[in-house]
Amino acid sequence: MRIVCIGGGPAGLYLGLLMKRRHPEHVITVVERNKPYDTFGWGVVFSDAMMSAMRLADPESAAEIEDAFNHWDDIELVFKGTRQRTTGHGFIGIGRKHLLNILQRRCEALGVELVFEREVESDLEYPDADLIVACDGVNSRIRARYAEQFQPDMVIRPNRFIWLGTKKAFDAFTFDFQKTEHGWFQAHIYKFDAETSTFIVETTEEAYNAHGLGELDQQASIEFCEKIFAETLDGAKLLTNARHLRGSAWLNFSRLICGKWSVFNGKSHVVLMGDAAHTAHFAIGSGTKLALDDAIELANQFDRHGHGRAGIETVLDAYEEVRRVDVARIQNAARNAMEWFEVVGHRYADTLEPPQFFYSMLTRSQRISHENLRLRDRSWLEGFERWFAERSGIAVKDGERVPPPMLTPHRVRGLSLANRIMVSPMAMYSAQDGLIDDFHIAHLGARAMGGAALVFAEMTCVSPDARITPGCLGLWNDAQAAQWRRLVELVHGVGHAKVGIQLGHAGRKGATRVPWEGIDQPLESGEWPLISASALPYLPHSQMPRTMDRSDMDRVRDDFVAATGRAAAAGVEWLELHCAHGYLLSSFLSPLTNRRTDEYGGSHENRARFPLEVFKAMRAVWPSDRPMSVRLSCHDWTDGGNIPADAAVFAAMFKEAGADLIDCSSGQVWKDERPIYGRLFQTPFADLIRNEVGIETIAVGAISEADHANSILAAGRADLCAIARPHLADPAWTLHEAARIGITKVEWPKQYLSAKGQYETNLARAAAASAQ
Questions:
Q1: Which residues are in the FAD-binding domain (predicted)?
Q2: d(CA 284, CA 332)
Q3: Cβ atoms within 10 A of the Cβ of 309, count?
Q4: Surface-to-core class of residue 679, CB atoms within 10 Å of its CB (0-12 exposed, 13-18 middle, 19+ buried)
């Protein structure tokens, strides 16, 4: 084949040498706009896994690259007058120029033609090429020519950064955070040869503008950064090799995703690689890795399907299918890390103490978890766990195993929880006339013995017409209150767990069948009239609710207050108001479901007016020493709905009204929603509200392991974790997860003690066997 790589960066050079090495008959040209053996940029970072892949792909260049690498294991944080360090992270750095020079020499040795100092305007300049590889960077001209086919989605991120270097060799990947009168600046620093380090300085657009950095030339910007980071530089100067750029050289990162990666131009197949196809923020240092992995996979697909013209389309389709998955994974991690740095000042640096700030930074991408940190640096993590435990009121003796964050106690008002795990409210739809029955006693009693500190029953309705289905629990009469007293006494009699109640009103989502007869489907008979913020049915064929008037509001408020009083009298220790998932109070908060033009619609204040009225009336009769939380849908997952920033506004209002925590869920407000699911996918909402609004939060959603919970709590992303489906599958989830991570000093029900030792022994045997 005749192959032309437009762009002489890592992607184009590596593909050229791999294809020539595997099939010397190919005629391959790599075209580069720069001079021979010249490039811009400082150092790049690899992982050990990347080097393993390169050794397999081309041992010769891998050996030379590896000889030139600088290895280091440590990460150091400079923050608020402290220096903290952890080890075991396994970074490899090399100068970008050195890397490209090695690949250029390898290409020449294999017979790849290198063309320098040529600007390629169009792929049509090479009509005889069978395959044109567009690896001409994030501003790819080739991609722009076929934008309709490639469907590029480019987002310019808000932070500013400047890519510098220094002739000081740092022995750790160093992060330095410094606060100025206008905001925080952070430096990402890593060595890439014996005497030189990359020094990237980043800040917010607000700080950038306030300091007038856009008005400075490069030298003035360098002097500004030298002053801010003077202590870390210790007399060393900052350098730039981007004199070719006009102005100050401060840039915005461009996040790129393409809908398609290849096209046929009528004569040649054109495929995107590297930054022309996708970008990953430098916060996790994976841009070069992605480019090299692209080259390896494309070459591998030619090996599988044949090095000939006839199979090119099949190869390109397979290449994209395989790479899209890995790229999405890396981009998700890079997005998490990027967004962490974009909000680091006001969300974390201003609020977190140095040890927790360091933990938050280390886990910013959500690829590194609590137990992964233990594998990397046990000593550091156990020191952090000791710090966290002491702040939770635990005095740990020397030599004792420190409890992980999820097993530390937590106090809210006058209530002390034995740990930070709660059984989330989960609808069972198995009540008769709203009454707790033997099923609920067995169901909740089992979970009360499972180790969680707080056990919630399902959403409990404040009136008969507040139910979702005829099978919902209620608390509108004395008979129901008596059964709640029975439940409280049972839970208190079998362990340390406390009892919580979530009070709610279904609103427009009421009068439906139980889920196993049709989720959200309206009752065929026995339905009751519905009310909501506005007259909008949940499904097109659902019952039309009536728009609430003031008399409706008075009645509903009084129903919530009456149920609150019954819950308090029954001995319930925690009260949560349900303002999420499209139910009645949620329907006021979301602009999707609130179309009112009176004082209860429009602005945030108006939409929150009635939910806040209900909350304040409940808080007034709920005992002052008992906690009260609010469940919010923090994202409606559809255009025109609430987003996390809106949830933060509502959270601040509930905080001012006396809420102790916000239970951060999302969705279920609008039927056409499109949630983005994933591990811990709702935790960012809890993180934002906790650290920007300044109120404790509960994280929910796709938390299924102790490792997940410990990572969330240790990083300060939430104060409690609500576990739902895992508790359905395993009532003793907390006890079992504690045993799985080696924590044996956990209280089991005395009746089950004979099983505890055997369970722990079996886990230890299984772990030993898997390690062999």
A1: 3-328
A2: 11
A3: 12
A4: middle
- Among the listed residues 208, 583, 600, 759, the single catalytic one is 583
What is d(CA 545, CA 528) in angstroms, rounded to the nearest whole number? 10
Burial of 550 (0-12, 13-18, 19+ CB in 10 A): exposed
The CA-CA-CA angle for residues 634, 635, 637, to 5°, reads 165
- What is the rounded CA–CA span in Å between residue 435 and residue 598? 37
Cα–Cα distance measured from residue 426 to residue 411, given in angstroms and rounded to the nearest whole number? 24
Phi, psi of 295 (to 5 degrees): -60, -45
479 CB neighbour count, 10 Å cutoff = 12
| Cβ atoms 634, 654 nearer than 8 A | no
Q: How far is CA 116 from CA 8, 39, 207, 346, 757, in A?
A: 9, 11, 40, 46, 70
Identify the helix (H) or strand (E) that includes residue 198: strand 197-203
Q: Is 67 helix (H, G, I), strand (E, B) or coil?
A: helix
First to last CA, the chain: 48
Side chain identity at residue 201, one-letter code: V
Report yes or no: 349 and 177 within 8 Å, Cβ to Cβ: yes
Tokens 């049509």 label which residue?
124
Report field, pTM of the whole predicted structure over 0.85: yes
* Residue (of 501, 499, 502, 503) closest to 415 by Cα position: 499
Angle between helices 550-569 and 478-494 (to 10 degrees): 40
Let me know: does 11 contact 294? Beta carbons within 8 Å. yes
- Is residue 718 within 8 A of residue 683, CB to CB? The reply is yes
Q: Whose CA is closest to 709, among 498, 410, 414, 501?
A: 410
Token pair, residue 532, equals 């909501």
CB 156 within 8 A of CB 184: no
Using CA atoms, how far apart are residues 473 and 476, in angstroms rounded to an integer? 10
Question: Is the distance from CB of 610 to CB of 554 less than 8 angstroms?
Answer: no
Query: In terms of residues, how long is the chain?
Result: 772
- What is the full DSSP assignment across 718-758? -SEEEE-HHHHH-TTHHHHHHHHTT----PPPGGGHHHHHH
Mean pLDDT rounded to a whole number for the chain: 94
CA dihedral 310, 312, 317, 323 (to 10 degrees): 150
Query: What is the DSSP secondary structure assignment for residue 25, as one 8-state letter?
Result: T
For β-strands 75-79 and 82-86, DSSP reports them as antiparallel
Structure tokens at 754: 């004979």
Query: Structure tokens of 267?
Result: 């004569």
Whole-angstrom distance, CA of residue 708 vs CA of residue 101: 43
Is 38 a residue whose pLDDT tops 70?
A: no
Q: C-alpha angle with apex 677: 674 to 682, nearest 5 degrees? A: 105
Predicted confidence (pLDDT) at residue 747 exceeds the cutoff of 60: yes
State the alpha helices, DSSP H only, in 457-498.
478-494
SS (H, E, C) 253-312: EEEEEECCCEEECCCCEEEECHHHCECCCCCCCCHHHHHHHHHHHHHHHHHHHCCCHHHH
Tokens 């390169």 sit on residue: 54
Rounded Cα distance, 554 and 551, in Å: 5
The number of CA neighbours under 13 Å toward the Cβ of 626 is 21
Q: What are the structure tokens assigned to 59, written together?
A: 């041992």
DSSP bridge pairs for 27: 2
Q: Which two tokens stand for residue 229?
A: 């980071």
Pairing of the two strands 415-417 and 410-412:
antiparallel
Q: What is the pLDDT of residue 447?
A: 97
Nearest to 107, CA basis, from 39, 9, 207, 33: 9
37 is catalytic: no
Per-residue model confidence as pLDDT tens digits over 532-590: 999 999 999 999 999 999 999 999 999 999 999 999 999 999 999 999 999 999 999 99
- Tokens linked to 601: 């619609």
Q: Give CA–CA dist 219/216, Å, rounded.
A: 8
Q: Are 406 and 713 in contact (CB under 8 A)?
A: yes
Write the DSSP symbol of residue 33.
S
